[in-house]
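Q: Here's a chain of 86 amino acids. Please give me its 3D structure as tokens.
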Amino acid sequence: MAIIFPDSATLNKALIAVLTAAPSPLKAHEIDKGVIQLLNLTEEVAGAIRDGNRTEIQYRLAWCRTKAKKANLIERLPQGSWLIKK
């Protein structure tokens, strides 16, 4: 049985929601954890390995961050944290 992952739109909305709710900038792993909790993803979905030790969700959220940054919705700070653009 194939694992069903959230679509890009769902991940994008969750990414923005997690960053909007954060009182301070978040590291990528904190964003990933917040999205997993917000979407109530199962351990099977959250832990599915894509390549090496990177999960499929981590990979997809990295692309979501890249696209949101290019759309000027979020900003990456020099120390590797992310925040929502105001």
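Q: Can you summarize the key feature?
A: The domain at 8-84 is CATH 1.10.10 (Arc Repressor Mutant, subunit A).
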